[in-house]
Amino acid sequence: MIARLDSRFQSQSPRLRPSGGQRAPRKSGVFIGGMTAVFLLWLTYRLVVQPEWATHLPGVLGEMLHLAEAAGLVTLGLLWGVVWLRRGGETAVTVQPLDLAQLYELSPAEFERYVAGLFRKKGYQVQMRGRSGDLGVDILLTKADGRRAIVQCKRYRNKVGPDVVRELYGTLIHEQADHAFLVTTADISASARRWAEGKPMTLIDGEELSYIAGVMRDA
């Protein structure tokens, strides 16, 4: 069931299939690593080999070379700092698993933040949208490859019917998003699940949400 947070978002239609988005941070690291290696080779050449042409550069050109090397060091330092912060932010995300009774104790706003934390831990970029005039979108998700999904959080006790799912589908079309998630504490009716079949939508009820949180904690 944990796969529902990702697999349906990626495979509902041809444009939702994986396109290497999760590899983007790794590719950035490889690119920066290559730049660093080239720069270090250059510094080794300059300082160890000490080529004669470099020592006989005119004053202005020699000064420009020193400035370029200093700028390279600063730039690489900043780039590695960004990579470190990004990786640190990903690994720092923790979400305490809650059972169904504990989920019901949350306020609607707390429930939205809890769900947002789960998606953030899964690797999505998360933007909270739950407020007056949100047009049915509580959370906006963005994958590394730019695909967008919307999340509607329902801290309900009564069973969720097809009307809620139909409204969410309309919001999905209006927002021009790639996928929609309905996350609720309540049960989801069979008719609602049938209505969502074949559409870029994932429905997660309270029991499944508790299970997902537990699996993600142990992952």
Describe it for me?
- This protein has a five-stranded mixed β-sheet, with helices on both faces.
- It is of the alpha/beta class and 219 residues long.
- It has two domains: 21-91; 95-218, 3-Layer(aba) Sandwich (Trna Endonuclease, Chain: A, domain 1).
- The protein is elongated, with a radius of gyration of 25 Å.
- It is 56% helix and 11% strand.
- The longest helix is centred in the middle third of the chain and has 33 residues, at 59-91.
- Helix 2 (24-49) runs antiparallel to helix 4 and helix 7 packs parallel to helix 8.
Q: Can I get a quick summary?
A:
The protein has 219 residues and is of the alpha/beta class. The protein is built from 9 helices and 5 strands. It folds into 2 domains: 21-91; 95-218, Trna Endonuclease, Chain: A, domain 1 (3-Layer(aba) Sandwich).
Q: Number of helix segments?
A: 9
How does the overall form come out from the CA principal axes?
elongated
Uncertain parts? 11-25, 88-92
Question: What's the level 1 CATH class of the largest domain?
Answer: Alpha Beta
What structural category characterises the helix and strand content?
alpha/beta
Tell me what the CATH architecture of the largest domain is: 3-Layer(aba) Sandwich
Q: What is the N-to-C order of secondary-structure elements (H for helix, E for strand)?
A: HHHHHHEEEHEHEH
The largest β sheet comes out as: 5 strands, mixed
Main sheet: strand order = 1-2-3-4-5
How much of the residues is beta strand, in percent? 5-15%
Distance between the termini: 14 Å
